Amino acid sequence: MKVVIMGCGRVGARLAAQLDAAGHSVVIIDLNAYSFRRLSQTYKGKAIVGNGIDTEVLKKAGIESAEVFIALTQGDNRNIMASQIAKHIFNVPRAICRIYDPLRQELFATLGLETISPTTIFADLLQKRVEG
Amino acid sequence: MYIIIVGGGRVGYYLTEALLKEGHEILLIEENPAVCEVINEELGSVCMRGDGCEVVTLEAAGTSRADMLVSVTADDEDNLIACQVAKHKFKVPRTIARIRNPKNKELFEKLGVNVPVISTNLILEHITEEVPTHPVTHLMELRDKGLEIIEMKIPAGCACVGRTIKDIVLPHGSILSLIIRKSQNPIIPTDSTVLMADDQIIAVTPPQAEAELRAVLIGE
After folding, report:
1. Is B69 domain-assigned?
2. Dihedral (C-alpha) B139, B107, B84, A80: value to the nearest 10 degrees?
3. Which residues of B touch A58 (CB under 8 A)?
4. Which helix (H) or strand (E) holds B203?
5. Of A58, A101, B189, B192, which cross-links A63 as Cys (Cβ 3.0–4.6 Å)?
6. Has residue B117 been placed in a domain?
7. Total domains, chain B
8. Residues of B100-127 as b/e, b for ≥16 C-beta within 10 angstroms?
9. Which of A48-57, A89-98, B135-144 shows the lowest mean pLDDT across its residues?
């Protein structure tokens, strides 16, 4: 599968390495080239420096033929905007978007985005641990 | 009207000040507490501290009874999301967003922002107005009608010079509404008006016919 990931933080870098190792074609984008140090030595995919909410950068990353786009920067709004660009401008079949704010996640899920809120997931997980 | 403004930078500050003077009810939302404090001291208690993209903040601001939300932070993504949350969660009838990157206009319109204001283009237009070699100036957009008002100067070498309005073929939907000639009163053109070099034309046209109109009035 052709996957474009925006944001090379811990999650982005790890996911990129995992997908790459599983045989998918991966392109990762980050504002800062220094972030690419997190990619594993064996990563064979592409790494592009640029802003993922800029259509030119997305084109360079091959968004037009991507099957999945995943937004994983620290900024909820940046992730939401990039996912909407992928979905509505480039017609990427799947755009997955991390949104920390649970209320914003709920809203944009109802607007048709595929959203994940780590806040909700982690809080639920911790509650289960606490309650045993 | 009750208008919510997101972003207390320069644009937000002066916008708040101007709209207050016009007698509107204004609430400005700004994240930085120091900035909030200054605004409240200078403009009265109009500024609320918070993130204008957050549902909770907008709820506290009474967004569901707002007539309009204007988002003027420095970041396109924040302006987009604030408008989308206002529109979809709180059913605000009109949303206006400031855009830095002109490429984002199409996306903003597609996603339901009523009026994307591209500051870069506004400045560009003022520059092009000053530069005589730039033949077309966009004066105004009539968004709801799908029309724009533009200004053009007919160059000496244009094929239309010396011909009457009746003789030139204007694109469908385009109208020449005013001719300004040196040392004369403005003329409302009729079929028999003869076009001259250096005529300044104010025209109303659908944006898609602009290139064709330009070819007629400027082309050689």
Report:
1. yes
2. -140
3. none
4. strand B200-205
5. A58
6. yes
7. 2
8. eeebbbebbeebebbbbbbeeeeeeeee
9. B135-144
Domain hosting residue B67, numbered range? 2-122
pLDDT digits (tens, 9 = 90+) for B25-34: 999 999 999 9
Q: Which domain holds residue A18?
A: 2-131
B-proximal residues of A, 56-85, CB under 8 Å: 56, 75-78, 80-81, 84-85
Residue-wise pLDDT tens digits, B38-86? 999 999 999 999 999 999 999 999 999 999 999 999 999 999 999 999 9
Q: How far apart are CA B198 and CA B157, in angstroms?
A: 10
Q: Report ipTM (2 d.p.).
A: 0.88
Q: Given A55, A77, A103, which is nearest B78 (Cβ)?
A: A77
| Residue of A59, A89, A91, A104 to mutate for B, most B C-beta atoms under 10 A | A104
| Of the candidates A63, A60, A22, the residue with the CA atom closest to the CA atom of residue A44 | A22
Determine the average pLDDT of the residues in B127-146. 68
- Residue A123 structure tokens: 């809080």
Residue bearing tokens 């709004």: A77
A residues 30..59 contacting B (CB < 8 A): 53-56
Q: Which is nearest to B184 in space by CA: B200, B167, B168?
A: B200
Q: Are residues B27 and B113 in the same domain?
A: yes
List CB contacts (< 8 A) between A89 and chain B: 106-107, 110
| Residue B40 in domain | yes
At residue B216, what are phi and psi to the nearest 5 degrees?
-70, -45
Q: Judge: A107–B89 Cβ closer than 8 Å, yes or no.
A: yes
**Tokens 């017609």, residue located:** A91
Picking from B122, B150, B181, the residue at the C-terminal end of a domain is: B122
Please check whether residues B116 and B145 belong to one and the same domain: no
CATH code at position A46: 3.40.50.720
On whether residue B130 sits in a domain, the answer given is no
Say which of A54, A81, A85 has its CB closest to residue B81: A81
Q: What pLDDT, in 10s, does the model give residues B137-161?
A: 777 778 778 888 888 888 888 888 9
Q: Give the whole-angstrom CA distance, residue B50 versus residue B36.
A: 9
